[in-house]
Amino acid sequence: ANINYQPYLEYLRGERDEETLRIGLVTATGVIMDGRQPAGSIGGDSLSLQLRGIREDRDIDALVLRVDSPGGSAFASELIRRELQLVGEMGIPIVVSMSSTAASGGYWISMPADEIWALPTTLTGSIGAFSAVPTFEDSLAALGISSDGVATGPLAGALQLDRALSEQASTILQSNLEHLYNQFVQLVSDARGIEPGQLQQYAEGRVWTGQQAFDMGLVDRLGGLNQAVASAAALAGNPDNYRLVPVDRPLTWREELARLIGGSAKTLLPGLNANQLQTMLQLLGLDEASLQLNSLLNDPGYRYLICSSCSLGVF
Length: 315
Hints:
By secondary structure, this protein is an alpha/beta fold. About 40% of the residues lie in helices and about 20% in strands. It has 12 helices and 13 strands. The strands form 3 sheets. Strands 1, 4, 6, 7, 8, 10, 11 and 12 form an 8-stranded mixed beta sheet that branches. The protein has a 3-stranded antiparallel beta sheet with strand order 5-13-9. Helix 4 (about 105-110) links the parallel strand 6 (about 95-105) and strand 7. Helix 2 (about 45-55) runs parallel beside helix 3 (about 75-90).
């Protein structure tokens, strides 16, 4: 007989000490994308479910969100921001701790926090947006491939990848993008108490260090994760007696199956070496590379919040 080590450790921890605060730690690392995403990326649905679990569990006294992201999907970022706002509306103090990068979409998801902490060297800000609709008509033409068709309206097939973007479609996308940017500025204005007119000098996609952002009022405090955790405990009412509790993201059925296989294969099949285990996971489509084959430009509205100065060539 055997038992997985995770539930066993939970059993050993025993019942909760009511006098000890539980500070939940949620890590948001990577490019922000739509849907459920594996570790190394931030999924709009994945992180939202994680935050929703905190609301439903009601066993967390304060929350620290560790952000390390250059941005990504605007739609996914808004899902996360809204879910974090709902956590705050329950009376749970929220502190954001920015890592090396928390820009554009990374800043968008940080706005509902009661406090935002950043390192002096953190790259943040980048309050801006862009749209991306890749087309391949020139590449196809070079191969002698063309397309044609019959449509019932001027916008039919406007976003087909094998034809250039029409002027009308481009105008619609630009209008949509300007609305998104104005929404971003207004959300920052409401969260930070800075007038939209004054905020424009900090926005328009400009990137700032944590020290500069602190001077501008875009972040509240300078410091690392430990200071942010201590501050969350203070906001929750007991800065001297608290415990940090990592909040794991929900796994997809593929990831759960891969974890179970990886954790028990050596016990069930003692003769299985690492290469054989990796081959078995690849055949099942459960290896890490297969789980991370996701399109980066997958926002349903083709709108993105991305730090062009700190994305490390992601887009």
